[in-house]
Amino acid sequence: MQRTAPEDPARADRGRVRHGPPAPDPGLPVLPELAAVLAAAADRTVCEPPGGGAALRTAAAGHLRRRGIGVDADGVVAAPGGPTLLFALLAAADGDVLLPRPCPAWWAPQVRLLAGDRSAFHVPTPAECGGAPDPYALLETVGRVRAEGGNPRLLLLCVPDDPTGTLAPPETVRAVCEVALAEGLTVISDETWRDTVHRPRETVFFSPAEMFPDHVVVLGDLAGALTPTTWPVAVARLPATEAGAALRARVLDVLAALGATVPAPFAEAAAYALHDPQPVVARAASAAALNARVQGAVHAAVLAAGAFARPPVAGRHLYADLGPLREGLAERGVTDSMELEEYLTTRLNTPVPGGHRFGDPLGALRVRLSTAPLLGATPGRRTESLTARDPLELPHLEQALNHLGEALAELGRTRRTP
């Protein structure tokens, strides 16, 4: 069991631990059809109500129903971005929060912002995937937290997962949810990356809300697959129960108190995307196929260097464990994940967040590697990467992958003195 610790003041000059890195950027130009909808709505000056207007919520409900999650517009809330919506959900509930380890970098800071003595506790994930804790470890952690006077009430899942790019199998998700519900926990399932699964026809994915619709909240940030990262729109589906209605009312109170409403032009664009029009669906599929190829090449480079990483099956990043390269890293002055983040960020000239930002111990030499920096430095190059028959044959992408591979390979070479 690992409680989220405060930032060490002695290390304040070596990077910000409390503030997570930005969400992984898609590295692709804005879809023209989305840009046109946003531009057409630019003169909308009336604010959306807290929780989103009827058009946005209706579009979100239809989007979720097409993915097997039962909900109507009255069971949906919207907010300007995933972190804001998660904060409102946490503030509307009570008790301590359980998180898988590793987990998205922006989760734990939301808990730290809440008043009182609420805490976040990290629970290890199984060997085969991230995003969901090991069921037995979850049961043990709940017992320990209660024995120490804590009040575990919420469990956050990420299926598919950021940062590992993996997908928890249905049997693991079910087992975790069964433990959570037996222990009286409310489950919040972050499904931001659902539409980024690389091979959806070959991959079995069930939302926890499909298994336990009366006990699971579904959260989704549209910036995961449907809209640009800089467009602040996220939606949540709450259970159609008395408890779900009460939670939704409290969430709306929090959003109203924060003045956290979706800007009207973005709400218009988000509603368009949530209706799953052909251009948006096609872009999501093309981006997933591109990331499958590039993430596969990055995974191969990590393994070739002698390090470890779970094979990614979704998203646009993977989580590399460079622990086997510890000797070579130590010779370069790198002994923890904060130093590893600084070293690789400088070496690759792109942000490479360390594992400490995702809840892993500082001594674990882990980083999240993203595909976006590899796709090209200009919109034209990124579009070329998206539309190429085989993007790995493009000179600029081949060069970027070679640069990454060389940077990782050199860490495995220790400097031997005669």
Please tell me about this protein's structure.
- The chain contains 14 helices and eleven strands.
- With 418 residues, the protein is of the alpha/beta class.
- An eight-stranded mixed sheet has the order 1-4-3-5-6-7-8-2, with helices on both faces.
- It is globular.
- The protein starts with a strand and ends in a 7-residue tail after the last helix.
In short:
Helices cover 40% and strands 12% of the residues. With 418 residues, it is of the alpha/beta class.
Sequence stretches where pLDDT stays below 50 over 5 or more residues:
5-18
Helix content: 40-55%
Structural class: alpha/beta
Secondary-structure element series:
EHHEHEHEHEHEHEEHHHEEHHEHH
How far apart are the termini? 45 Å
User: In what order do the strands lie side by side in the largest sheet?
Assistant: 1-4-3-5-6-7-8-2
Shape: globular
Average pLDDT figure: 91
Total strand segments: 11
Q: How much beta, percentage-wise?
A: 5-15%
The whole-angstrom Rg is 21 Å
| Number of discrete helical segments | 14
Largest sheet, strands/sense/barrel: 8 strands, mixed
